[in-house]
Amino acid sequence: MTGAVRVEAVVFDLGGVLIEWDPRHIYRDLLDTDEEIEAFLDEIGFARWNHAMDAGQGTWADAVTELTERYPHRGELIAAYPARFGESLAGPVEGSEAVLRELHARGVPLLALTNWSAETFPVARDRFAFLDLFDGIVVSGHEGVAKPDLALYELLVQRYGLDPGATVFVDDRQVNVDAARAAGLHGLLFTDADRLRADLTRLGLLDGAAPG
Question: Structure pTM?
Answer without folding.
Answer: 0.94
